[in-house]
Design a protein that fits this description.
The complex is a heterodimer of chains A (289) and B (316). In chain A, β4 and β5 form a beta hairpin. Chain A is of the alpha/beta class and 289 residues long. Chain A is globular. Chain A has a 5-stranded parallel β-sheet, with helices on both faces. Chain A has a two-stranded antiparallel ribbon with strand order 4-5. With 316 residues, chain B is an alpha+beta fold. Helix content of chain B is 24%, strand content 35%. In chain B, strands 11, 12, 13, 14, 15, 16, 20, 21 and 22 form a 9-stranded mixed β-sheet that branches. Chain B has an 8-stranded mixed β-sheet with strand order 2-3-4-9-8-7-6-5. A 3-stranded antiparallel β-sheet of chain B has the order 17-19-18. Chain B starts with 8 loop residues before the first strand and ends with a helix. The chains are: A alpha/beta (289), B alpha+beta (316). Chains A and B meet through α2 and α3 of A and α1, α3 and β19 of B.
């Protein structure tokens, strides 16, 4: 049965916000909005505890290649456990084959992929704050096809190793993946036309909801509310070393303001073609949105 | 049964050329093996458990409880990717069927950290997934989710002079109302990051896998420590705050955190036919054992503070 919904994105593209809305839609009650530290909807596909629980052998006792190739089996097992309910997997990995003929995610279990994408200039600013690095370092990571998360070999993290690649290669890998039903959701549309964009994505995923329920979930998931919760109780998904809030600004166009001209040009020169394809640049190279 | 001469396992320099009966001691059991277990203290006398090479036969239909584990009341089969399969039978026998050219050190690791765990469950022992130490003569279990710092804290406490009883698997015996911690495997598996922080040299320790910098650190001279009364269980939990907070658990909360600390998932215990007995033992242990949830800020820089707190909790 195809009951897996993949929320795929480059980091800092609205994935957590989408999951908070889902949580407020599916779990929270009218009286009690969702606790951001217990989103309770699905899991991140790279979760080390999830891997350990399902394998019966800890990831720390396996080789990196074994971990990578067994992640797809773990996803299959979780799909089976949750039948007939939908299960939502957040995923930041670049879409690739983990072994010859073996895709990163189990296609025969996949109902759809919601690919969340955001202007890479804004991603760059948010990425820099999130990982506590300079804009320069963040822009280099967004342009580097070797970029990964939790990729060191001197320890394991709470998440397993993930290969991100560069921003545009990440987008291309998901949008051009064969045999994968992908629904593209732009962060900018989530912000500006929240009801319509969430409604389409949720319908593509097969989530049943009423207009009233979605309006209420969106209201409960407003960034100001999430920020308030984070200030009061912290947020478990925040990178420990970063002084910035996880739910920081979430603004559209921040990259144009914060990044230097050289950094903007560098990002556009690397990602221009994909930015045009997604409506972030016009044919003359002018920034849109 | 395969003859020892047919073993296609990478032999270490210390491995015997022909089959020799070797006896080791762990969890108050004598383990008889055909190959050296370099991390275990030697034992003597009659074998309680025989560890052999051989073909694995499913005695009865098994229930798949995890991707790598299938179980029944008589037998558990653990299939380790790239290594082979262990059949753990009747609390007295472990049969290993290797894949071609496996590393004997890895076989030892899965044997001691997983196969023995299921064997102890078959012997109706309580088994925890925790680091075990003796502080001031009192048994302590440090439990918590992956990446919570169990091993690193155990290493730090051992460096402070406390007795190390084992990592990953801790067996507890309940006899005449007393809960006793049994001595396990005297070695730790520590990541390179943590070894460097403690000013130890990684070159001095065996690296478990070539692609991951995790090392085996022996915790002493392989003399088997005496069992001690189990007096505390500490469940580690990182949180967003700046303080180290020790929260004593009460009533059903204690059972909840003890259960989360157990080796063997509820699914596997059910397939082994042990659920009811296991829960009874757990509730009995919970009656007399203080359980503390230790919340602390994330990051190795806080380990000294956490170790102080743990010593404070355990000091009589």
């Amino acid at each position: 049965m195809k009951n897996l919904v993949w929320l795929a994105s480059y980091p800092k593209s609205g994935n957590t916000w989408f999951r908070v809305v889902l949580g407020n839609l599916l779990i929270a009650t009218r009286d009690k909005p969702l606790d951001i530290n217990q989103i309770g909807v699905g899991a991140i596909a790279s979760s080390r505890p999830l891997f350990d629980q399902n394998m019966g052998i800890k990831a720390s006792d396996l080789s990196l290649n074994q971990i990578q190739s067994w992640r797809v089996r773990v996803a299959e097992q979780i799909a089976q456990q949750h039948e007939p309910e939908l299960f939502f997997f957040k995923i930041h990995d670049h879409y690739q084959q983990v072994a010859p003929g073996e895709p990163l995610i189990p296609l025969d279990r996949t109902r759809c992929v919601i690919y969340l994408v955001r202007n890479p200039l804004d991603v760059c600013v948010s990425y820099a704050h999130h990982f506590h690095m300079t804009f320069e370092a963040a822009s280099q990571q967004l342009c580097n096809e070797d970029t990964g998360l939790c990729a060191g070999t001197t320890r394991l993290y709470n998440q397993l190793r993930q290969h991100l690649s560069s921003w545009s290669e990440h987008v291309r890998s998901w949008l051009e993946a064969p045999d994968l039903p992908v629904h593209v959701l732009r962060y900018e549309d989530m912000k500006r036309s929240s009801f319509q964009s969430f409604s389409k994505a949720l319908s593509a995923a097969g989530v049943a909801f009423t207009d009233e329920q979605l309006y209420r979930a969106l209201e409960a998931s407003k960034l100001e509310r999430l920020r308030l919760q984070e200030r009061e109780a912290g947020f478990v998904e925040k990178v420990r070393t970063s002084p910035a809030l996880f739910f920081r600004k979430g603004e559209i166009g921040e990259g144009q303001v914060e990044l230097s001209t050289e950094q903007v040009e560098c990002l556009i020169s690397h990602h221009g073609a994909m930015m045009r394809r997604l409506g972030y640049l016009d044919q003359t190279g002018r920034l849109l949105l | 049964m395969l003859p020892a001469a047919g073993i296609r396992i990478k032999q270490t320099a210390t491995a015997p050329a022909k089959r020799t009966r070797l006896i080791y001691r762990a969890y108050n059991l004598n383990l008889e093996t055909w190959f050296p277990l370099t991390q275990l203290p030697p034992g003597s006398g009659r074998a309680d458990v025989r560890i052999q090479l051989g073909d694995i036969v499913e005695k009865v239909p098994l229930t798949q409880t995890h991707l790598c584990v299938r179980a029944s009341p008589q037998q558990v089969i653990l299939a380790v990717p790239g290594l082979g399969r262990f059949s753990i039978q009747d609390g007295s026998q472990i049969i290993f069927s290797p894949d071609v050219d496996v590393d004997v050190k890895l076989v030892e690791l899965f044997l001691t950290d997983y196969a023995l765990g299921y064997l102890l469950l078959q012997r109706e022992q309580m088994v925890f997934q925790a680091s075990a130490l003796s502080l001031f003569g009192q048994g302590l279990l440090i439990s918590g989710p992956s990446n919570s710092g169990k091993s690193s804290l155990a290493l730090g406490l051992w460096q402070r002079g406390h007795r190390f009883f084992g990592e990953d698997l801790a067996a507890v015996m309940l006899c005449a109302g007393r809960t006793t911690l049994l001595p396990g495997i005297p070695r730790m598996k520590i990541w390179e990051d943590r070894i460097s922080q403690l000013n130890l040299n990684t070159n001095d320790y065996h690296q478990i896998r070539p692609d991951q910098a995790r090392h085996l650190i022996p915790s002493g001279d392989l003399t088997c420590p005496e069992q001690v009364p189990l007096k505390h269980l500490i469940y580690l939990m990182d949180w967003g705050g700046d303080q180290v907070r020790a929260v004593p658990m009460r009533g059903f909360e204690k059972i909840h955190w003890l259960q989360k600390s157990c080796f063997g998932s509820p699914e596997t215990l059910a397939a082994m036919g042990l659920s009811a007995r296991h829960f009874r033992l757990l509730t009995t242990i919970a009656e007399g054992l203080p359980v503390t949830k230790l919340c602390f800020p994330r990051g190795e820089e806080h380990f000294d503070r956490i170790q102080n707190e743990i010593e404070g909790i355990c000091r009589p």
